[in-house]
Amino acid sequence: MDFGNGSGKMTKGKTESGLAYTLNIMANQWQPTMIYWLGFRPLKKKELLMLLPKLSNDQLSAELHTLQNLRIVNPVKNDEDQYSLTDDGDQLRQLIVSSSLWGLQQQDDNEDLISANVVEPENTASLRDLVKYNDTVEKYLG
Fold it and tell me: What does pTM read for this prediction?
């Protein structure tokens, strides 16, 4: 399955392992970071574009469509064009964050030191504060 072009369907062709399926999503250039940000609260497309400044509007629309097909993201039924994570999306977000932290800790050259704790912004943080957190997200999610 190819999850990068918007055509991946969760229910079609269940021939790969669960791990391979998950890794395909996690290896996507944008999807893990989108899932991370949508875990804070429902966000508008323009807010997602501010949090993902290297992503074009067309790319964002395609990735949102793919994540909807995978039942990870749903549009919020209101007039604000917002998106949020499904319950499955919340579970995947936890896995992405845990895997990212684990990977950086394993690369720590200083075995005797405990890796620094990562403090996430509050879900009530302003968009401006979330944007300031982008460098940290980039470090962990690439």
Answer: 0.79
- Residue identified by tokens 């007039």 is 79
* Stronger pLDDT, 142 or 22, i.e. the higher one: 22
Structure-token pair, residue 88:
């499955």
The answer to whether 95 and 35 have CB atoms below 8 angstroms apart is: no
Q: What is the pLDDT of residue 73?
A: 96
Token pair listed for 95: 């896995």
Say if residues 34 and 92 touch (Cβ distance below 8 Å). no
